[in-house]
Write a structure and sequence with these properties.
single chain; seven-stranded antiparallel beta sheet; mainly beta; 77 residues
């Protein structure tokens, strides 16, 4: 039987409309094992992650399609 996907949602994120940069607050993206190819979800939208830059910084593969978010809940799977 295949393992169910795991998710990560600790802390909050800020991302600008049309931006590929995600800034985390209270996050540990690297330590959590996030990697390029994982999916980033927030506000009912999702974008693939292009890179994990640090504990508090992600780069999205495509510009964020929604409104700017600040201190928002999110999930990465």
């Amino acid at each position: 039987m295949a393992d169910l996907p795991t998710s990560y949602s600790t802390g909050t994120v800020t991302v600008g409309a049309g931006s590929t940069s995600v800034a985390g607050s209270g996050t540990s993206f690297e330590a959590a094992g996030l990697e390029a190819g994982d999916m980033f979800w927030a506000a009912g939208l999702s974008v693939r992650i292009a890179g994990v830059n640090s504990a508090t910084s992600l780069t999205l593969a495509f510009p964020w399609p929604g409104a700017a978010l600040s201190g928002a809940n999110y999930e990465v799977r």
